[in-house]
Amino acid sequence: MITIGNKIKQLRHQKGMTQQQLATQLCVSRQTISSWETDRNIPDIETLTRIAAYFNIQVGTIISSQNADSVYLHKYQQCMMDIILAILLVERVTQLSTTFGLHWMNFIVIFYLIIFFLALKQANYFLNAGLIIFGMTSILSGFANLFWMGFGFRFTCFICGVLSLIVFAINVHQALFRKQCQLRKVNRA
């Protein structure tokens, strides 16, 4: 978990500042900066506001326990999953196909809804496995013209499969990013 002290230290290092230089800017002592960075103390809300203003960021970025890049990736991932769900539902309701094609799309939609709810629960292992299976199944059914679905369903399956594999790639990137951050912490200690 990234603490407020770690965030302050990270921001200070990004600007190439010493503790003394930051202390001068914030009108506090160097020892105060040190106590924040080692998590012995935390700054009060007024000081957090000054820190945020100095580094041109929001206070929420400092007090958040997640890295800003990680939060951005999670929002992007959730947005992509919402788009996939919307595409599937709209296509299922608006496209005409054979009975078997409609049943296949029902299966695809239900399967994706299960994956979607796993994403809400943050069960990453099952989510990633589901995204891979869904992506490959959708892409293959789009190419194979499974159940004589027609071009609309085939195209929808293919696009949704590709998008789900992109979401999977985002998940893998997040996991690698977290491991890299943990390794940096271990190496610094």
TrEMBL record:
Membrane-spanning ranges: 102-120, 125-147, 153-177
Pfam families: HTH_3 (PF01381)
Protein's organism: Lentilactobacillus diolivorans DSM 14421
Protein origin, superkingdom: Bacteria
UniProt-listed Gene3D superfamilies: lambda repressor-like DNA-binding domains
Keyword Secreted attributed: no
UniProt keywords, alphabetically: DNA-binding, Membrane, Transmembrane, Transmembrane helix
Entry protein name: HTH cro/C1-type domain-containing protein
CDD domains listed in its UniProt record: HTH_XRE (cd00093)
